[in-house]
Amino acid sequence: MNVRRVSSANVRQSKVIGGIAIAFVLAAPATVWAVNREFLPGIQWQQPPVITPGESDGPPSDAIVLFDGTDMSAWENAENWTVADGVVTEGRGDVRTKQSFGDCQLHIEWSSPLPARGRGQGRGNSGIFFHDRYEIQVLDSYDNETYFEGQAGAIYKQMPPLVNAMRPPGEWNVYDVIWTSPKFNDDGSLASPAYVTALHNGVLILNHFELRGDTFWPTVPSYQAHGPGPIRLQDHGNPVRFRNIWVREFKPLTSERVHEPKFHDHDTGREWLVSEGETPPEESSESPAAESPTAAAQAAPAETDSIEQATRSTRSRRPWRPVRRWLGR
Ligand code: MG
After folding, report:
1. Distance 139 CA to ligand 1 centre (A)
2. In angstroms, what is the span from residue 69 Cα to ligand 1's centroid?
């Protein structure tokens, strides 16, 4: 009997909770929909450049091709590596790009020697160095034990890859690396460290990893001030093959603030600053953003007009208002 009473109480309690939940679900959207309000961040962005993507893993239109299967003229010391059948094979001495790079996206395909010879760091070793000093490891890490921060995809001696996505010797691996160069102050001190994000065969292996400095075998990682530098491929004495190498430099988009963040109410036409709250201030305390159009135009930079006009032009093509409310737009 006692169990039965508890059970009934639970049922009543569940009904009450359920009722509250349903009421909340019904009321919450109504609260949102009652305000036909848009957030305007007030930042004018540079138009992102238009580029043509590459076919498959090919270079996009804004890429610099470093090796297309036949031409290694973008590299120094290329005469000591072997180009044949669309690939270049690791030879005597490292190769460095003649051009220097800073922040960039690198695509490079590589294949470990078949049959596999050696073990650990002695098997299929090469490496890709940014600025001639920060290495993402190239190694035959297919069923080959070594220290984790030295296996394929590692930032050498600093960070192992998140997973081992290695293909067997003889097959082709793909690295897509997003490299953010370290930045230095005028006095040579570090302003911002290097970061790297990388995919190995389409799989994330490094996620915005912050480098502690350079990656030389005998020294503690450290930063020495430098500017853009070459990309280097390592000769470690193993005939690793490479193909389809391209790089894209990238820069942050530029922007400028054209007005403070504000809200625009599409029902009333009122605008008010975000700093004034979630709802429009009382009519008696008009905000600068809610002043007359003439006053607002005088107070705002010239760019504001074009932004607002563009925004309103876009709004004129907006869906029917009940549909917008349903979409939350
Ligand atoms: Mg190496």
Report:
1. 7
2. 23
The verdict on 238 and 287 lying in the same domain is no
Q: Does residue 54 lie within any of the structural domains? A: no
How far does residue 102's CA lie from ligand 1's centre (Å)?
21
227 C-alpha to ligand 1 centroid (Å):
23
Q: Is residue 106 part of a domain?
A: yes
Q: Among 105, 78, 280, which residue's Cα sits nearest to residue 178?
A: 105
38 CA → ligand 1 middle, Å: 53
Ligand 1 centroid to Cα of residue 154, in Å, is 10
Whole-angstrom Cα Rg for the chain: 29
**Strands 195-200 and 172-180: what pairing?**
antiparallel
Residues 234 and 104 in one domain: yes
Same domain, 191 and 75: yes
Global pTM value? 0.76
Look up residue 107 and give its two tokens: 């695509």
Rounded to 5 degrees, φ, ψ at 276 are -90, -5
pLDDT tens-place values along the chain, 329 residues long = 333 444 444 445 545 444 444 444 444 444 454 579 999 999 999 999 999 999 999 999 999 999 999 999 999 999 999 999 999 999 999 999 999 999 999 999 999 999 999 999 999 999 999 999 999 999 999 999 999 999 999 999 999 999 999 999 999 999 999 999 999 999 999 999 999 999 999 999 999 999 999 999 999 999 999 999 999 999 999 999 999 999 999 999 999 999 999 999 999 999 999 999 999 998 654 444 444 333 333 333 333 334 344 334 333 334 444 444 444 44
CA–centroid distance, residue 94 to ligand 1 (Å): 11
Nearest to 215 by CA among 284, 129, 124: 129
How much distance in Å is there from the Cα of 195 to the middle of ligand 1?
19
| 125 CA from centroid of ligand 1 (Å) | 5
CATH number of the domain at 227, please: 2.60.120.560
Number of domains in the chain: 2
Give the structural domain span for 175.
64-252
* Residues 219 and 182 reside in one and the same domain: yes
